[in-house]
């Protein structure tokens, strides 16, 4: 699956704050467990790992650094040797040193997972591809919430998730299964 020997794992916004937006209609309720499995395999293979957390500029947000929900979820707590980047925009490359770190690590391929499919994951995938990285997104390791369209129609979380992944696949990334991804890392 990978053409290089050092694909990096980039985990986006897997913080306790995401649970404060969940009305119970999120798709992939086990995404964090899948991310934890991928993270474990990356650790075992001693591959580069970056954790990205969102630091909202708005004090009332659960993503604000002063919020008790700003911390990473238990499934994705960084270890000492793993790099942590803090962003305040939707894309993990804006205002961070993520690109420089990936270049320093000799990375040409990235696996991007986390939340939300239609927000920070989408924005980060697009920029990563624009920067020249080969990008992979394991479909079960990201999630979306439902949306109310501007015309008043409702879009279920599963549809939001697959519309965004379908739009990204082929041009910006390769959407794959977590199992296929895990089988290609030793």
TrEMBL record:
Keywords, ordered alphabetically: Hydrolase
Domain Isochorismatase-like, first and last residues per copy: 8-146
Family annotation (InterPro entries): Isochorismatase-like_dom, Isochorismatase-like_hydrls, Isochorismatase-like_sf
Pfam families: Isochorismatase (PF00857)
Range of residues in the leader sequence: none
A GO molecular function held by the record: hydrolase activity
Top-rank lineage group of the source organism: Bacteria
PANTHER family: ISOCHORISMATASE HYDROLASE, PEROXYUREIDOACRYLATE/UREIDOACRYLATE AMIDOHYDROLASE-RELATED
Protein name according to UniProt: Isochorismatase family protein
């Amino acid at each position: 699956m990978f053409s290089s020997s050092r694909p990096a794992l980039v985990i986006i916004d897997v913080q306790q704050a995401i649970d404060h937006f969940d009305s119970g209609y999120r798709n992939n309720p086990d995404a964090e467990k899948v991310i934890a499995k991928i993270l474990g395999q990356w650790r075992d293979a001693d591959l580069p790992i970056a954790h990205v957390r969102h630091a909202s500029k708005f004090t009332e947000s659960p993503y604000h650094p002063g919020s008790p929900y700003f911390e990473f979820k238990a499934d994705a707590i960084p270890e000492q040797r793993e790099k942590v980047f803090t962003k305040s925009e939707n894309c993990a490359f804006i205002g961070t040193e993520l690109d420089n770190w990936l270049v320093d690590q000799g990375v040409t391929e990235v696996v991007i997972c986390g939340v939300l499919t239609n927000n920070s994951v989408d924005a980060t995938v697009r920029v990563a591809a624009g920067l020249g990285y080969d990008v992979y997104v394991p479909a079960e390791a990201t999630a979306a919430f439902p949306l109310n369209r501007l015309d008043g129609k409702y879009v279920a979380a599963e549809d939001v998730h697959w519309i965004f992944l379908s739009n990204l696949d082929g041009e910006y990334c390769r959407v794959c299964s977590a199992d296929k991804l895990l089988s290609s890392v030793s």
